[in-house]
């Protein structure tokens, strides 16, 4: 996805959106087969280790990697929370949540059990991007439910 912003002089009106730019012109890059992607990079070689594409969604979230070689991320308009193998990029698990996920997953341990927690609630900026995507050739549904729910998952290592 590519977007250009053209600065413009606007008067700030309290309570109304003010960006100081015309930001309603997102376009998809020609010949791309996806919009968003999760990338892993090998810091020793400086080369990309793996990439997971999201064909019909931006990726608008923070990522958590664990010492157990798991990578967790939300941030897609399908409301999924994903777990990947950190070494291979293989999708190991996903769970649909009530809304999109923008926040940072957190890991913690209680009595030897590892947990991953995430807040699911699509925000204003992510919704604005979703609205722009709905106007592209993809014609995606602009409506991603809003919400504010904390999800907690127990991690089972096999």
Sketch the major β-sheet: 4 strands, antiparallel
- Alpha-beta classification: mainly beta
The secondary-structure element order is: EEEEEEEEEEHE
Number of strands: 11
Q: Using only CA atoms, what is the Rg?
A: 18 Å
**Overall helicity:** under 10%
C-alpha termini separation: 38 Å
Determine and state the CATH class. Mainly Beta
Q: Give the CATH topology.
A: Thrombin, subunit H
Average pLDDT score: 84
Describe the protein.
By secondary structure, the chain is mainly β. It has a single domain (6-154), classed as Thrombin, subunit H. Helix content is 7%, strand content 36%. It contains one helix and eleven strands; from the N terminus they run ββββββββββαβ. It has one helix spanning 124-134; strands at 6-7, 21-22, 36-42, 47-54, 63-65, 70-73, 80-85, 91-96, 106-110, 113-120, 149-154. The strands form four sheets. The chain has a four-stranded antiparallel beta sheet, with no helix packed on it. Strand 6 (70-73) and strand 7 form a beta hairpin. The longest helix has 11 residues, at 124-134. It is globular. The model has no long low-confidence stretch (mean pLDDT 84).
Strands, helices and their partners?
Blueprint: E1 6-7, E2 21-22, E3 36-42, E4 47-54, E5 63-65, E6 70-73, E7 80-85, E8 91-96, E9 106-110, E10 113-120, H1 124-134, E11 149-154
Antiparallel strand pairs: 1-2, 3-4, 5-6, 6-7, 7-8, 9-10, 10-11
């Amino acid at each position: 996805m590519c977007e250009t912003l053209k600065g413009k002089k606007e008067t700030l009106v309290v309570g109304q959106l003010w960006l100081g730019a015309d930001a309603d012109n997102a376009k998809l890059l020609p010949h791309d087969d996806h919009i968003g992607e999760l990338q892993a990079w090998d810091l020793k070689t400086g080369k990309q280790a793996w990439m997971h594409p999201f064909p019909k969604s931006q990726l608008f979230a923070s990522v958590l990697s664990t010492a157990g070689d798991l990578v967790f991320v939300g941030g897609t308009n399908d409301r999924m929370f994903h777990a990947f193998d950190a070494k291979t990029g293989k999708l190991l698990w996903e769970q649909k949540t009530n809304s999109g996920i923008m926040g940072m997953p957190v890991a913690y341990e209680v009595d030897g059990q590892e947990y991953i927690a995430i807040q699911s609630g699509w925000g204003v900026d992510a919704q604005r991007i979703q609205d722009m995507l709905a106007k592209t050739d993809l014609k995606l549904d602009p409506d991603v439910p809003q919400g504010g729910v904390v999800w907690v998952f127990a991690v089972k290592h096999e």
